[in-house]
Amino acid sequence: MPNLHIETTRLTWRPVELTDRDRLHNLWIDRHIRRYLFDDRIVSRDWTENEIIKSGESFAKYNFGLWLVFAKQSDNFIGFCGYRVPDESSEPELLYGIKSNYWCQGLGTEVALAASKYAFANLGFQRVIASVDKPNLASVKVLQKIGMKSDRSVCVNGTEILYFVLKQQDLETF
């Protein structure tokens, strides 16, 4: 089983736990995060708790789920990252969200790159997929920067969703 605690140059990650419910919920209801992650919907604490439980089940079964991300220097909580399977027939999808006061520092790129490397090295993924609302230009740039290629677009509830794919051989090294 791989080590579920991940470390990058500036960040440390650990799997989310039930004791993190309020911390994660507060991030997810932040207007900057929910705008694209939940189509501006405010999720409940119970919904957040259920997602944490599903993440724990996913870690137990697949060695992936949701991680909380902390700044290594200060141990400040800065966001989350991970993989989830949207439905039974889908492959895992990369998710991440960084608190807005940590934007424009390359941390989203650092998180997405590390999550992709982890998936290839430890989980046997053949590819990493991610989706992003087309207007979320910052996340589009993050995915392109780590080498993801646009795969398709789909209109969902009036919003164009872009799908990106990263194959192991296309992973850019930094």
UniProtKB/TrEMBL annotation:
Sections of the chain in a coiled coil: none
An example Gene Ontology molecular-function term: acyltransferase activity, transferring groups other than amino-acyl groups
Residue ranges of every copy of the N-acetyltransferase domain listed in the record: 11-172
InterPro entries xrefs: Acyl_CoA_acyltransferase, GNAT_dom, N-acetyltransferase
Protein name: GNAT family N-acetyltransferase
